[in-house]
Amino acid sequence: MNVLKYIPFFSYLLIAYNILAYAGNEQSALNLVIFTSTLISGAVISLSVENILIMIGIFCLYFDILKSTRNSSASIIGHVLSMLVFVIFLIEYITVKPLGTASFLILTIMSMTDVIAGFTVSISAARRDITVER
Prior knowledge:
By secondary structure, the chain is mainly α. It contains 4 helices and 2 strands.
């Protein structure tokens, strides 16, 4: 169970997106409308599975960045795994036809932001820990 805390949340999202992209025969399960509501203005909002995965991605980004604030040598493992997840996102976006969508691109960019933010937070925290004596 201790290993699970190092696995980036985006890896779960990547797995879910892959499963849903290949689920269904002719039409992707990602296009399935889950929620429809009429706003006070009269506008109708419909949320598909794809839209909900993007919203979940925002929370994944927050929690992965929060995990990167830990100051330990084990957080390096988390950064390496986040980088690996981003590379998988990127390769799949470029090479796998069902994943070549705008939504998957947004999740790929969010994964890249997680990697950059994680390294930035770690470097900033390491600078504060270094003391210089004169």
